[in-house]
Design brief:
Radius of gyration: 16 Å
Shape: globular
CATH superfamily: Alpha/Beta hydrolase fold, catalytic domain
CATH class: Alpha Beta
Strand order of the largest sheet: 1-2-3
Strand content: 5-15%
Helix content: 40-55%
Largest sheet: 3 strands, parallel
CATH architecture: 3-Layer(aba) Sandwich
Distance between the termini: 15 Å
Structural class: mainly alpha
Oligomer: single chain
Number of domains: 1
Amino acid sequence: MVLIAPSPPGPQSISEEEHRLQLDFDFSEAQARQFIDGASEVPLAPVRYQQALEDAINANPTAWRAWPRTTYAEDWRETVAELPYPAWVLVGDKDPSLPPETQRDEAMPHLPQGKLEVFSGYGHLLPMEMPETLAEQLNAMAAQVSKSR
């Protein structure tokens, strides 16, 4: 199992300002840019930035607003317990939402066979910030799993 900048199974603490920004997101280009720029640590390639912008503008409003209204506060820790699978949790060390400390403290206890991989200099949007490096990492992980079988 590979989890990229995942939300942990327990309630997440977010600032009142971040909560308000999420609730008031209006799907405009300006707010989409603010969201992308705040979530990424490195400049995205123009084609990836455009894709992120289109994705944010065209997101389903009901799904988008579910997170700040209820989902962020849900507590699945007891249900999830400990997952008996090999797992890799990939996170950027500059992730403003779910930094490595959060992953270590809140996600990893549920993944006893898990490994936390921290990528220096990256934020929350790893697939867009470092697609080639991420693809190489995923290929290496797949090869490792294949060898263990």
